[in-house]
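Any chance you'd type out a single protein's sequence alongside its tokenized fold?
>
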Amino acid sequence: MRALTETEIKHHVDEIAEHGYSIVEDAFDVDFARQLMDEFEHLEQIRPGGDIPPAPFVGFVTRRWFDVLNDGDIWQQVAVQPTIMKVLPRVLGEGFLLSTMGTAIVGPGEKAQPLHVDDGVYAFPRPHPNLVCNTMWAVKDFTEENGATRVVPGSNNFDHDPEFGESYDSVPVEMKAGSIAFVSGTCFHGAGENRSGDDRYGLTINYCNGSMRQQENLMLAIHPSRMLSFSRELQNILGFQMCKGAGHLFAGDPRSEMERHYGPADSDRAWLDRRGEKVIRTTTEIASDS
């Protein structure tokens, strides 16, 4: 994974502001993509078909797995991918949060997803500051034929959300495997129709302004013992730091309370990961990871 230059960071931030999206090529390498494909295979074995029942909006042959920080350790690297962590502070502000993360594996024959916005959950009147930014990962090539996400360029600057059923001039976000597309929460977008004979393998990793409620309740979804094994950077975007005074516990970061109850002074702990395997961590191991 290459580091972005300051010029590149500014370019992508400016593109997101003007067009609503921007593509970073070579954001992750072939080996990382192969690890993600292995993880998809494992998820299919333990939770076949994904975590969301088929429906018109989420798709009938699209596999979406969520709550993945309780699955393979690779998701911890996904959440704090270096390119993302460089660009998003300029888009969402310091103290931004991980909101929801999952897969978007669009199967052959899937119809196009209705165009929508990702910050609609907050129901704020437009225009408004950036509340959400999605990152879409091309684990394999995104092409128009296999259902590359479609966007309406410049729609992030419209004064209204899309009307379902309305027609808009959209373009496919075609990109090579290893690319990550940033899509502003106000940009009209949706997965395209998959007219190929193969799956479109992607991730949708969504972040929000630090003052907003996350879509996934990540602080409850993950056992504190596992949370303590995460990097401080990942703990921060899960909500274990304050943002402009919001999110405090006893006027401080909630991490201190987690460490007080589950930190190195406690006895050894164990939890079950999503593979059904018992994971035992000693206090020494936990301390070395914190």
